[in-house]
Amino acid sequence: MAALRLLASVLGRGVPAGGSGLALSQGCARCFATSPRPRAKFYADPVEMVKDISDGATVMIGGFGLCGIPENLIAALLRTRVKDLQVVSSNVGVEDFGLGLLLAARQVRRIVCSYVGENTLCESQYLAGELELELTPQGTLAERIRAGGAGVPAFYTPTGYGTLVQEGGAPIRYTPDGHLALMSQPREVREFNGDHFLLERAIRADFALVKGWKADRAGNVVFRRSARNFNVPMCKAADVTAVEVGASPQKTSTFLTFM
């Protein structure tokens, strides 16, 4: 607690140092702190919150398919009818929930993910040439997002060496008649201590839509248990982050953004 008070005195603002605000530890929870001068704004209407997301924007969507996703913010995007989105997400979920709803409304042009799963809608749009799909190993995807938030432009990893990830040629987009229109590019490879590593570039987005557990007026957010997943690194890897905060679907959600 003494160290927390010292940090609060250095920053000179909303780091909880006493009994009020967010606790430093909440079981399996994890805290995310904003910059020393946060620009947090709270909303009651999620549509008002996402209305600035324009056609063609790159949007990170937190969660793990069905767990810890910002379902109310996704529903708000449906209402804005924004289109040609480039989405970065762990996976595409299912047809009638989460990211699958945006696919059904044909609002997504490109997806960067690690897992397609059982989403037949994603499969059909991809094979018909209506959707670009960039598959990335899950750990690599997580690190690309983390690196984007840390200001690291690229990094080397052994994952994918000797596969299409490294060699290039993985199909990203088909033409309507089934021919390849866009393929992945080869990765740069270097050797370190006798092992081979390929270069992966960081990912940043215009917006990140994430799900939190608790938040305070200073813009601090707590992510709890399994919902910590991709929500945490995505907060730092976007120009504007929109957070949906709510303990359960039965309770009214709160929404905040920070830049």
UniProtKB/TrEMBL annotation:
InterPro entries, alphabetized: 3-oxoacid_CoA-transf_A, CoA_trans_fam_I, CoA_transf_BS, NagB/RpiA_transferase-like
A GO molecular function held by the record: CoA-transferase activity
SMART domains: CoA_trans
Signal peptide (UniProt feature, chain positions): none
Keyword Oxidoreductase: no
Keywords, sorted A to Z: Transferase
Listed PANTHER family: KETOACID-COENZYME A TRANSFERASE, SUCCINYL-COA:3-KETOACID COENZYME A TRANSFERASE 2, MITOCHONDRIAL
Protein name: OXCT2 protein
